[in-house]
Specification:
Elements (H helix, E strand, L loop, with lengths): L2 H7 L18 E3 L6 H7 L4 H7 L13 E3 L17 E5 L6 H8 L3 H7 L13 E5 L1 H16 L3 H12 L19 H12 L8 H18 L4 H9 L2 H7 L3 H16 L2
Length: about 270
């Protein structure tokens, strides 16, 4: 029996396929060994600042193992352009994982995960089965915001470019071979790794892909003295091509699209 069909067959009656609850993300989280505030925030689709504020904490170092943290509403930080877009992703279950383990991995409510997949929370799941996980947009928004702050690039700029490039999909590959959220060609990823990062960045991983794209944007912003249209042209078409051929019509459309996205990111 196909994977998805076998999971559906494990559903516990018609109530298991009810509409997805509005509370997709878990509202609380117990800190585990090895957790950091940034890890917890990104997993639950929020920011470190919002997480600390919700728990009345002055610094991220104050979290402790066993502490129960309140998780703020992740949907509040989404840019207007992202609301209502496809909000799920597919996850291939590893050995020993079930609904609860997968829910913990993605920071979602186990009941919401089970209902999304038309199964019960205790349904048997085999290694290699695929689960549809809700809450993709807040998780990716949190990751983009974290990377923007870490690299030192404007958050709305990075979010807008990532949205224009892939709608925040890491699994997207263009016909020319551009990869991931920031749609980076492999040779561009290698150039950023060598000349800007000083370490290997795996553009097939979402965080590394975002870091590489953010570093390239920061480099272009410095080169073009914070001129956003020139930076976007360099990112989309390449500075050498712009210098040799001028801006193409699709480059100008790209500039307008990203600038409109930035304007909606309030």
């Amino acid at each position: 029996m196909p994977t998805r069909s076998r999971l559906a067959a494990a559903a516990l009656g018609a109530t298991a396929v009810a509409t997805i609850p509005s509370a997709v993300f878990a509202t609380s989280y117990v800190v585990r060994p090895g957790d950091t505030a940034s890890d917890i925030a990104v997993r639950h689709g929020t920011t470190v600042a919002a997480l600390l504020d919700a728990n009345r904490m002055a610094a991220p170092e104050l979290i402790r193992v066993g502490q129960m943290l309140q998780i703020p509403d992740a949907s509040l930080t989404l840019p207007a352009y992202a609301r209502g877009a496809d909000d799920s992703e597919t996850y291939r279950v590893a050995r020993g994982e079930g609904v609860f383990e997968t829910a913990r991995r993605f920071g979602v409510d186990p009941t919401a995960l089970a209902r999304t997949n038309g199964i019960g929370v205790n349904a048997p799941i085999a290694e290699g089965d695929e689960l549809v996980v809700p809450g993709r947009l807040p998780r990716m928004n949190a990751l983009v915001s974290f990377v923007a702050a870490d690299v030192g690039v404007d958050g709305p700029l990075l979010r807008g470019v990532a949205w224009a490039e892939s709608r925040w999909h890491q699994d997207r590959v263009s016909p020319t071979g551009a990869v991931g959220v920031m749609q980076l060609e492999p040779f561009t990823g290698e150039w950023v790794s060598r000349h800007l990062a000083g370490t290997h960045l795996d553009i097939w991983r979402a965080q590394d892909n975002l870091v590489a794209g953010a570093m390239l944007l920061r480099h272009l912003m410095t080169k073009h003295e914070a001129d956003i249209p020139a930076t976007l042209a360099g990112y989309y078409q390449g500075d050498a091509s712009v210098a040799s051929h001028g801006m193409y019509d699709d480059t100008r459309r790209y500039q307008r699209e990203v600038q409109e996205l930035i304007a909606q990111d309030v």
